[in-house]
């Protein structure tokens, strides 16, 4: 899976400098449910990303704009397989600091770390801390160790507390939804889809206006 992720990142050309892999692939605790999740951290042209991927034989099976909450940056998602287990994500507005820390919470590696087979600590959706070892990894809970975990991962306690709140709520009431999910047809760009939605969605329009100011 790491080799496949490396192929996708290499297909991004110069844009790969700001690309990261996040989640179990970065931590190393991969199982049959694991995905290849690649994030381009900077706001870049989605058309350029798509053209680079297409030039290297990666064709989108699905495209969507998603926004977790009205305050989050809308993001373009390009799914490269039918099961949507390989995805490239591009922020359509600069990421807020807590959004960047969201990815670090789960563990992130860049292209060189991926190539060098480096694994990093991070947390799962079960609120389990994964600490890689030479022969595997160690699992431990993070509840009651929020400050220690934040220091280990180099993130704020605030994002630890937010993830605990969201994930515990999900366990109680089932999968939590996201604020916005817009399928993008082949003939439309992500930017066009976002602009069209903003005309009809006051909350999205307000976010775009506030973040541009």
Short recap of the structure:
By secondary structure, this protein is an alpha+beta fold. The protein contains 9 helices and 10 strands. It has helices at residues 2-11, 24-27, 46-55, 97-106, 111-115, 146-153, 157-173, 190-200, 202-212; strands spanning 19-22, 36-40, 62-67, 75-79, 86-91, 108-109, 122-123, 128-132, 137-141, 180-183.
Question: What do you see in this structure?
Answer:
The protein has 213 residues and is α+β, with helices and mostly antiparallel strands. Helix content is 40%, strand content 21%. The chain has nine helices and ten strands. It has helices at 2-11, 24-27, 46-55, 97-106, 111-115, 146-153, 157-173, 190-200, 202-212, and strands at residues 19-22, 36-40, 62-67, 75-79, 86-91, 108-109, 122-123, 128-132, 137-141, 180-183. A seven-stranded mixed beta sheet has the order 6-1-2-5-4-3-10. A three-stranded antiparallel beta sheet has the order 7-8-9. The N and C termini lie far apart (41 Å). The mean pLDDT is 93.
